[in-house]
Design goal:
Blueprint (H helix, E strand, L loop, with lengths): L11 H13 L4 H15 L14 H15 L12
Amino acid sequence: MKATTLTMRVDPVLKEQAEALCAEMGLTLSTAYTMFLKAMVRTRSIPFPITADPFYSKKNQAYLAESIAELEAGGGEEHELIDV
């Protein structure tokens, strides 16, 4: 099978982490990406769930804006952070 070159931009730290993980599995990054593309074509979808981060929901953003306004108006109370 003839191959083609794919060029993409990615954060260098992310690339290093992905290469290290692939090496642990006995794969190259190129092989892993090929596996991803084949799964995507086979299933006609992204082969993993993609969900929105609830932090960025309209409801939470409204809550944060309200909280910031309350703090800026002198409201709220100071307390120590609790390690969970």
